Here is the input.
Amino acid sequence: MMTTVCVPDAGLAAALADLGDLDVLVWDGDGPPPPDAAEIEFLVPRYALQPWSPAQLAQLPRLRVIQVLTAGVEPWLDRVPPGAVLCSARGLHGGTTAEIAVAGILSHLRELPRFAAQQARHEWDRHFTTTLRGRQVLVLGAGEIGRRVAEVARIFDASATVVGRTAREGVHALADVPHLLPTADIVVVALPNTPETTGLVDAAFLAALPDGALVVNVARGALLDTDALLTELTAGRLYAFLDVVDVEPLPSDHPLWSAPNVVITPHIGGGASGWEQVADRIVRAQVERYLAGKELANVVVAGY
Amino acid sequence: MMTTVCVPDAGLAAALADLGDLDVLVWDGDGPPPPDAAEIEFLVPRYALQPWSPAQLAQLPRLRVIQVLTAGVEPWLDRVPPGAVLCSARGLHGGTTAEIAVAGILSHLRELPRFAAQQARHEWDRHFTTTLRGRQVLVLGAGEIGRRVAEVARIFDASATVVGRTAREGVHALADVPHLLPTADIVVVALPNTPETTGLVDAAFLAALPDGALVVNVARGALLDTDALLTELTAGRLYAFLDVVDVEPLPSDHPLWSAPNVVITPHIGGGASGWEQVADRIVRAQVERYLAGKELANVVVAGY
Here is the structure.
């Protein structure tokens, strides 16, 4: 019996081409559905933060698996049809998201924007900067992102404290965060967006940080209270590097754009070059598990 | 018998204050010498790239040890008086110099200057960038800098090949460099400046790199042929991140300032905050060895 899989592009279809008993449709959910859409059991939506609409999903009555290409799954949680499972792409973007966190930290500490302005003026002004050496880095998130950020911090002689949703060897519990904030020079937010973490970085969290601390958010905008951060930035008390914000795209008239002491990148942590090849491997392995009747990897919501 | 040590500032003097049999002079070599200058056996010049002049050193007839505060010692090599030794501050700036190399690499790959320009225009333009993942990083230098750059590259799923002056387990010989260049996406220059390495990165070296490669120099400017690099930059074939240049300060009318595809920082790899505390420990340990008649650490030129 054939299993029908729907993928968003020809590249992913090619990655599955040699698997037997498989009918692969290429459709990204826009426009009219292909003739066999009603047969789709395994759906890979395109790499995007927005989920399919309920109306789009209603076109797939036999849907059993939604394999997203993001690590975060929050927008999909209330979309999973009865009898289907939702799987995250855990690990797909973790390395490159850790990279953007480290890029933001080092660019801030070593003052790359200041030196870029000097270069534009042809000005050699040797000014020594701060550094990770001896700093306290608080990493919220013990997954692919947090692990790597902590490792890099330690290579550069910083102390890294890692917090996860579950306390374990080398990982503090979320409940410890209030005690860890007053000594944190840098906080990296790399937790999934869940009811437990939404709004975690609020006014009280920020107020507990020492003067001059850097807040890095590479997780999801909803974890951080933008207004509370704006207050601290405007007061000149804290610094921020934000790859994610609570409304994306950030509207052009939003005050965050021109607030002092903040660097904003447009959610580019994931999706860096080569991600498609990693995605091909992840999706292919998951389809093989499904065909073999094995337990799927990275199931976030199990059907009922 | 008292041993006379000369240090450049009160901080270093304080770090030695409780050692016995020691007369500590604070003098940075400028202005008239202190009354006991002729007694100086152990000299710590201030953290600077320029060595003391022969005339300044001639004021210290009893000099036995020059302990510099830089890792590179090249400017001092022909200044060491007969009977004296020259010691480098190996390891003092390695961590923060590796940090600036990684900052330059990640800022380039993840296009932080581009996103800074977008932020200035309040523009959310989600554009995916390149990344270290899957890249070939060629690290020239197997010391404190090179080791850390290689470790960070591997954490971000790049391949790192390390070259040292001496081939050993995990370290290639300088002779292998020509074979390693054609597949290098990024080259990090972190070798000391010696007769063997001066001018290493010349036109032939650069020509062997693939299109789009990034050249990072955090060692000394003399290792790289600036004119040859300018030709490649102007042709749009290579990119560069330079924390050091062959004439420092770089004159304001030098064409490198406004060449395309180059980022310049004014030799700020070392000297980042906290270096004085590390220097205090290094100098104190060395003075203790000297007082105890033990073998000194990091001797680069031994007296004759």
Observations:
- The mean pLDDT of chain B is 96.
- The first helix of chain B runs from residue 10 to 16.
- The first strand of chain B starts at residue 3 and ends at 7.
- Chain B touches chain A through 57 residues (CB under 8 Å).
